[in-house]
Every structure is written in C-alpha cells, then in structure tokens.
Amino acid sequence: MFSNSEIYFQAEEIVNLEVQQQTIPIQHYLKQPFRLVKTIANERLMKVLGFDRYQLQMKPLNFLEIYHFQPTVILKVWTGASGNVYLKSESCEIKGIEYINRRFSLDLKGKLTPVEIEGKIYLQGKANLTVKVDLPPPLWLTPKTLLQSTGNSLLKGVLMRIKHQLMSQLLQDYYNFAQGEKEKISPNQNILGVFSGN
C-alpha cells in the first residue's frame, strides 16, 4: 500500500524509422512479435512464457548511487488486426530489495505502426514508462525535485536504450527475415500472393 511518501516518475520516447521495403512486406514481419522482442532484449535474459507474454530481465539500474536494482518485467507483445504492434507490461519484480519490491509499480505501454507517406514506408511508434514507488526512509529527507529529476532521467535512459536497440537491430532483422523467406519461395510462386493469403 502506498503512503504519502510515494512518488511518480515518467518518460516518453517516440520512434520514426524509415523502412526500405523488401519483397516480403514489413507488415508480414510484424506479425511475429517474438522477433521484435528479440531486437530490444538480450536473448539470454528473456524467457518466453506463451500467449504473447515474455519475461525480461532489464539492465541494472542505479538510483542516486544508493540503490542498485535489476527489475524483471512480464511483457505482453502482440499484433493487432490493422498490423500495429502493441506492448504492455503486466507485472514487475525487483529482487534483492524487498522494501521497494512491495512498494513499487511499473507501467510500460508502447505501440508501433507501419505507415506509408509519399510512397515511403515508416515505422512510427511511441512508448510511455511510468513508475510509482513508496520512498524508503533514507530518501524521505531528500528534496523531491531532485528525486523527480533523477527518476525521470533514469526512465528516459531506459526508453532510449530500447529505442536504440530497436532502430539499430529491427531493420537488419527484417532484411534478414525477408531474404530468408524469399529463398523459401519457389520461382513459380507469386510472392505477393503467398503473403496476402491469395
């Protein structure tokens, strides 16, 4: 239960990524959220839970040089009927610091949409990260403005790392995927027909 010492931290990050459309459309690639998750997470720290849910161990975080912790988050990542990819956190656990673990909540929401603008394909998206925590006694006398700016910067850094991973690895993975799928299709098959369901 949260008390008067609770505090909120928030951050937002926007993605606008031009895609060089391959023979296999990016929309088909996005129907496989597992590949998308692998581009933003360390595969060794990821566990597939099924039903579009994944357990991810985030990179260690350092708050004011006092608390060092590594959250483990359960994410749901799925593709909607319109081709959008959605991401939402379902739970979060902080091992090793029980006081904060029982007084900590994390909410991560994201959306990635393929759009066509003047004949070019872009992936556009936005992610919002909010953390609510009941401050431990050692931080009660710390100015809230300092806590707020430090916490917001910490979350911004988390989202920026995810964005960097996405932008640097997603396109390469898509190109590799498209090349692999293209090689599976016989010369007599119509590629667009195969991936449109015709």
Quick structural overview:
32% of the residues lie in helices and 39% in strands. The protein has five helices and nine strands, in the order βααββββββαββαα.
According to CATH, the homologous superfamily is START domain
> Which fold does the CATH topology refer to?
Alpha-D-Glucose-1,6-Bisphosphate, Chain A, domain 4
Structurally, the number of domains stands at: 1
Cα distance, first to last residue? 54 Å
Nearest-angstrom radius of gyration? 20 Å
Mean pLDDT: 84
Order of helices and strands: EHHEEEEEEHEEHH
Widest beta sheet: strand line-up = 1-9-8-7-6-3-2
Supply the number of helical segments. Answer: 5
**Poorly predicted residue ranges:** none
SS-derived structural category: alpha+beta
Please describe the biggest sheet, giving its number of strands, its sense, and whether it closes into a barrel. 7 strands, antiparallel
Write structural notes for this entry:
This protein has a single domain (6-184), classed as START domain (Alpha-D-Glucose-1,6-Bisphosphate, Chain A, domain 4, 2-Layer Sandwich). α2 (33-40) packs across α4. It has a seven-stranded antiparallel beta sheet. It contains five helices and nine strands. By secondary structure, the chain is α+β, with helices and mostly antiparallel strands. 32% of the residues lie in helices and 39% in strands. The chain is elongated and about 65 Å long.
